[in-house]
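lol forgot to send this yesterday, sorry. struct tokens for the thing we talked abt
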């Protein structure tokens, strides 16, 4: 399906999609095509034979935080890129995202078969990022999350039956694990741990093993059974399984990447249901203390968006990843309290100590951080950006951005429904 087109080839009567030219491309430098074909000018990869290597990738949800970084990663590595995105206001704001000038963007809902048919025409690979994101909100906007995530995936796959891609990679989530893996004092591994509601309501935050024995959190690998603790987790697991079943049935290389907590410049600062780092930054920029549930000692794995974008590209290019689920994280564990304190210090507001709420949210888990051995082995993936070295970058980005603090509104919406205890 991928085509190799001589440099400077100009198809007769080709239509150049507005906003589709790559940086530095000039009129007549096209990705190739036949008479009357719509072409998109992606970035060019020159080989020793003077050819452009073209493989067009559709990114659903591609105008979002991860999608934009992935588009840049793919363009820089010689791909053409098309994006399908509905530009949901909660994520992109009332004016939508600023235009992406180097790719073709199809604006529409992934649940619309007509829109999807237009978006998949002529693509070689699909990266499926389109999804509603947020554990807390998913617990009361259930139809919205199930519709966008699960029905949207079903419509996409049904359309692809008629035009199967070479590869499809879907964004899954660490939330499908529920609690991460633990070991007890004897070194026995425990992989299906759940906190008792009665313990959590009394401020006993750490899960216990059989006979109420204490447990220690350890890195979670892909062998751990899923344990779906939220509607969001349920929808992400359904997305993952739909794509993998489709791939096996129709001979398409299908891979699911289970993303841990993605951070970096460009995350929606005014959406309280996105990443915790963006939420903290928005609060601090507004002169407010970061809101931290429980006691702040819960641990998460934070992975930079640039590393995530590279992982998706590697999943498109690596052999022997069909049918696989692969963790994408940093492999490090950070306490939420520490993250809030460090970010406030770097943003010049050390006095804004985290507001430790001593309450938990329904659907939340205590600890989960990634074992990325499989990503190293199958994708040759190794994270290049650490959280510790990225706080300055985050602070600089926030200083040049507009942020509306909606954390208290999010808290009220959860409390009024009895989802905070």
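and heres what i got for the seq, position by position
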């Amino acid at each position: 399906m991928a085509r190799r087109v001589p440099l400077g080839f100009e198809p007769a009567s080709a239509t150049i999609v507005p906003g589709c030219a790559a940086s530095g491309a000039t009129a007549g430098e096209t990705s190739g095509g036949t008479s009357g074909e719509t072409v998109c000018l992606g970035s060019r990869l020159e080989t020793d034979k003077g050819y452009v290597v073209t493989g067009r990738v559709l990114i659903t949800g591609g105008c979002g935080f991860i999608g934009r970084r992935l588009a840049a990663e793919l363009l820089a590595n010689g791909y053409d890129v098309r994006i399908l995105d509905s530009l949901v206001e909660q994520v992109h704001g009332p004016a939508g995202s600023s235009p992406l000038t180097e790719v073709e963007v199809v604006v529409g809902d992934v649940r619309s078969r007509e829109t999807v048919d237009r978006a998949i025409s002529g693509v070689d690979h699909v990266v499926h990022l389109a999804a509603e994101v947020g554990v807390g909100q998913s617990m009361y906007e259930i139809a919205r999350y199930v519709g966008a995530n699960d029905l949207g995936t079903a419509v996409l796959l049904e359309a692809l039956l008629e035009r199967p891609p070479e590869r499809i990679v879907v964004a899954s989530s660490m939330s499908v694990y529920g609690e991460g893996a633990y070991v007890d004092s004897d070194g026995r591994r425990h992989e299906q741990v759940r906190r008792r509601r009665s313990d959590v309501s009394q401020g006993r935050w750490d899960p216990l093993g059989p006979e109420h024995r204490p447990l220690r959190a350890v890195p979670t690998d892909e062998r751990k059974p899923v344990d779906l603790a939220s509607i969001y987790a349920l929808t992400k697991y359904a997305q993952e399984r739909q794509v993998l079943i489709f791939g096996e049935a129709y001979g398409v290389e299908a891979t699911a990447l289970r993303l841990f907590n993605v951070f970096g410049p460009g995350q929606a600062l005014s959406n309280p249901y996105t990443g915790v780092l963006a939420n903290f930054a928005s609060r601090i920029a507004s002169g407010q203390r970061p809101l931290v549930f429980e006691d702040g000692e819960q641990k998460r794995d934070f992975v930079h968006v640039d590393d995530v974008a590279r992982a998706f590209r590697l999943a498109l290019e690596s052999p022997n990843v069909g049918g696989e689920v692969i963790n994408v994280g940093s492999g490090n564990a950070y306490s939420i309290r520490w993250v809030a304190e460090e970010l406030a210090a770097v943003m010049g507001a050390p006095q804004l100590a985290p507001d430790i709420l001593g309450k938990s949210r329904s659907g939340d888990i205590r600890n989960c951080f990634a074992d990325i051995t499989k990503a190293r082995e199958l994708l040759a993936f190794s994270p290049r950006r650490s959280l510790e070295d990225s706080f300055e970058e985050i602070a600089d980005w926030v200083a040049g951005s507009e942020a509306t603090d909606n954390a208290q509104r999010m808290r009220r919406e959860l409390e009024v429904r009895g989802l905070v205890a």
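The longest strand covers residues 167-173. anyway ping me if u want another try
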